[in-house]
């Protein structure tokens, strides 16, 4: 199927993950996406080879975030390359960048410059810290702006005395990309009503603060924060991590204690707990949470997670295993929902997390080789073979 955004033309001039992933979602729904790269290519092409990343035979991050795109290299530090982009922008619907504000003029990509060429253009900017303020041009990655700066890095420590928890690649970029996609689609809806394009933006910090907004709002309202205690002294034993007899960890999350406490006691085969005065009410279970956690530790250690799973499921008790990434990738459920779907080459890929009933997504095609589509893209924008050759010889095409 062509997709709901068939005919929509997108230039993805962003690098790495967050901005490009917004363009990827547009492409998933049928948009035509040109990946505009600097000379030498987007550095994201090399991330799979970075120390500590999973090693394999494919360029998995590049494939994920640049599927079905076409590549064009332009050296936007040159006036002749900027002229090429300006011609392209005249017939483009969405332009995506993560260039910081102070550098846009030198590349010929200021929002006002491009809007003057095409008033219907949606200019979508993704930055680390935002468009305004003292840090508007501060560079950053999701590890710094989304994870460390938002408070998330500090809050998810195992306890207050533990060192900060490191992030993993892309964990903040992809949520920020979804936010940028939402801004783009909102602007497209406005354009349908008014005929006007516009400037939309978000940042890694914006997305991080939104992800941490429960706690950030608490801080804004002057709430008193309680340092996170170790697991064995958790303030609520009914929402805590436990280890089964096989060594596997799982998270128990029982919020409806009036119904679920008696069921938990029954599943565990511990009827005497129901009459234990320390646990006679929700309030008392909070007061005696450490003692209850120790008892739950001992009880759950008596069986493997494979044995506990059907018992907990049958009782309707909310829990889940702490899965490895390999387990998450191999699971049946995300395949059933389409969260993991086949790519055009038959391999599996992670789908973008938006689904519209009745609107099938485009097949996930391969990512582009560097500058592989330059001649075709330039021809579509009115350049003759001789003109393309002249641009290439001059260095405009990188």
From TrEMBL:
Any idea which UniProt keywords this protein has? Transferase
Q: Does the keyword Cytoplasm apply?
A: no
- Tagged with keyword Calcium: no
Task: State the Gene Ontology terms under molecular function.
Answer: transferase activity
* Entries under InterPro entries matching the protein: CoA-transferase_III, CoA-Trfase_fam_III, CoA-Trfase_III_dom3_sf, CoA-Trfase_III_dom_1_sf
User: What PANTHER family does UniProt report for this protein, alphabetically?
Assistant: E-CINNAMOYL-COA:R-PHENYLLACTATE COA TRANSFERASE LARGE SUBUNIT, SUCCINYL-COA--D-CITRAMALATE COA-TRANSFERASE
Q: State the name under which the record lists this protein.
A: Formyl-CoA transferase
What is the scientific name of the source organism? Belnapia rosea
